[in-house]
Amino acid sequence: MTGLLEARNISKVFGAGLVHKTQTIALRDFTFSISGETPSVTAIVGESGSGKTTLVRLLLGLIAPTSGEILYRGQDLRHLPAQQRRAYLRDVQAIFQDPFEVFNPFYKVDHVLESPIRNFGLARTRQQRRDLMAEALSTVGLQPAETLGRYPHQLSGGQRQRIMVARALLLRPRLIIADEPVSMVDASLRATILNSLLKLNQEFGISLVYITHDLTTAYQISEDIIVLYRGAVAEAGDVQLVVPQPEHPYTKLLVGSIPLADPDAPWQGERALGAPTGLAPNGDSYCAFHDRCPYAMPVCVEQTPSLFRTAPHRASACFLHGDAPILPNDRIDEVFGGGRPAPDAATPFVAES
Amino acid sequence: MSEPNVLRVEGLRVHYQTPAGPVKAVDGVSFAVRPGERFGLVGESGSGKSTIALSLLRMIKPPGRVEDGSVTLDGVELLELTDEEMRRVRLARISLVAQGAMNSLNPVKRIREQIALGLREHGAAREGRAFDTFLTELLERVGLRRGVGDMFPHELSGGMKQRVCIAMAISLEPQVIVADEPTSALDVVVQWQVIDTLRRVQSELGAAVIQIGHDMGLMAHSVERIGVMYAGKLVESAAVRDLFRAPLHPYTQLLIASLPSLDGKERLQGIAGSPPSLLNPPAGCPFHPRCPFVMDVCRTTMPPPREHRPGHFAACHLYETS
Domain residues of chain A, as ranges? Predict the structure, then answer.
């Protein structure tokens, strides 16, 4: 099956040049694909240093992987012929964190909507262009009359971010990669933006990759989730399984650290786990979380855990679940899609390794 | 006359002068904080919460100006002190962990030098062995090893830098610590460590904390009493549990309802509309254009804050009895 966008065993290593002698592995052997057939919502959750920003930049073709490849409709993103490149630029849209930086303060906000219409020849007449812009703005809940003709500084962060959603919609992409789209937006406006993204998914069949550090919004809007820790997948699967009952100690720590808006809900932070066991690795293979993990066993400092498939729709890279069958990194997609009806027969779950 | 509050703010008004007219960032805010109490001021961007933080330390710079009101610390009117007197009050009696403080550490000076400088500037210099002992104890208080004193800021993680900033803020054992967004830009696990540290040191010192932020979840777990700011006004204040269990002001109600939870998936509810411009705030209650319960009186008259339940204040016409 050729998907819309596939990352195959990609790794990204920074440094190790003449200037920087130390290497930083930002992302390690990561595989993930968006079929584009069934609209999906996948959250990729991680803290700073987890590799999530590197992943966004790789998927958008802004940087190239050190190893592995990223395929757009089966072709390597680095060597797309001109026509495919154009199709890619239309099919895959991005929404970034800062709704202030993407606008040129000297242009009216219309500019940000007009350029894709021009670049892709979406409208033949001025009227068509205005209609397209008005339609896209209405879809994200903005009044065209109150939005067009204004300058960026006259709009709130929430309004600007919704304009970016409208802009992405104009091109009718197959996939929107939203990198922390609400982290700089006020709480009262976040839900509106997330809802407009969900609307694009549900009404226009656009797949979403939602990159965030915030487990609560990830839980609310996504079907599948990937938790990254220091460049590798810690846990992945159906969000309804992973967030309410995390298996990986790191995911447990993340869930326990969320200050929920309820003074009686537990807020435990590091206490959620307890003291690390203090085992130290000798070689280069070990679990990246061993130094913070109260459950660390000798094996955790001797080997790098692979993903263990603990249920049909979830997998954890933790030796606590070492009895479960190994799920090779490049078959991670098998655990996804549990929360939505399958378009065709999914790979049956086999209980032996 | 005994004053039960360590800090009292009365009718504070702070305006920023712009070519288009005054921006009323803080528009008649009153609250009081008891000794050792943790009080939170929560609000969205532009609600005036950071301006209040700066006003408490008399650090508002032009074009901003305190137009009116009073800030008393332990009975002393801060707004009437001379600049020199105020400089002596800062750090010693009331201190600030500024927003993004961890990024304002001097990159070319070791932590110990920066702490020593703070002491010197405020006339509390310690030398030699006495300083070493002092530094070790201070760093221990915020959960940092003694060795951190000899490090440069770039050698520390974000959470450690923020704890250094807390250490500086408590170095002279003030009665009031103002912490403006002390955990913004920190990872969620680290947020917990920083708040835990802040909570521990303030209870050891018996200092009051005024924590300023936008994250209702964080507030729910770090303070005892919360004030909710909207468009330069304090629209509600109550003990944390009362505020989350039974919010009175429609803005607070909608804000709490808009927060995502982990108890099952639900449709996310935002608040329609946008916060008002402070240059031309709407007449009457600033929330009326977005309020689902708006009445005629809301469009013309700002309701006064009133104690509708014991210790629970709200400024809303819904609860005014005619």
Answer: 247-341
**Which residues on B lie below 8 Å from A193 (Cβ)?**
270
Using CB atoms, pick whichever of B255, B261, B270 lies closest to residue A260.
B261
pLDDT digits (tens, 9 = 90+) for A222-236: 999 999 999 999 999
Across chain A, what does the average pLDDT equal? 88
ipTM above 0.85, yes or no: no
B321's tokens:
């009895």
Quick check: B277 contacting A, CB < 8 Å?
A: no
Say how far residue A107 (Cα) sits from the centre of its chain.
30
Handedness of CA A59, A64, A68, A71 (dihedral sign): positive
Task: Give yes or no for a contact between B112 and B186, defined as CB atoms under 8 angstroms apart.
Answer: no
Q: CB distance B220–A257 less than 8 Å?
A: no
Number of H helices, E strands in chain A: 10, 13
d(CA A138, CA A134): 6
Q: Which residues contact A76 (CB under 8 A, 6 or more apart)?
A: A69, A70
Helix or strand or coil: residue B56? helix
Task: Tell me if B217 and A260 make a contact (CB, 8 A cut-off).
Answer: yes
From residue B78, alpha-carbon distances to A16, A171, A341, B94, B180 in Å are 56, 58, 65, 11, 19
Single-letter residue type at B141:
R
From CA B161, how far away is CA B104, in angstroms rounded? 10
User: Is B214 in contact with A220 (Cβ distance < 8 A)?
Assistant: no
Nearest-neighbour CA in chain B from A139: distance (Å): 15
CA dist list (Å): B193 to A271, B32, B91, B100, B251: 10, 27, 23, 16, 30
Q: Are A213 and A35 within 8 A, CB to CB?
A: no
- Tell me whether strands A75-76 and A67-72 are parallel, antiparallel or unpaired: antiparallel
Nearest alpha carbon to residue B38 among B168, B178, B172, B162: B178
Chain B residues whose CB is inside 8 A of the A262 CB are 220, 244, 261
Cα angle at A181 between A158 and A179, to 5 degrees? 160
Cα dihedral across residues A320, A325, A328, A332: positive or negative: negative
Stretch B146-164: mean pLDDT: 91
Binary contact (A261, B261; C-beta < 8 A)? yes
Q: How far apart are CA A281 and CA A112, in angstroms?
A: 52
Chain A residues inside the 8 Å CB shell of B188: 47, 213-215, 254, 257-259
Integer Cα distance of A235 and A217 in angstroms: 17
Question: In one letter, which amino acid is A331?
Answer: R
Six-digit token string for B278 = 């402070």
Give the tens place of pLDDT for each residue, B170-222.
999 999 999 999 988 788 888 888 899 999 999 999 999 999 998 899 999 99
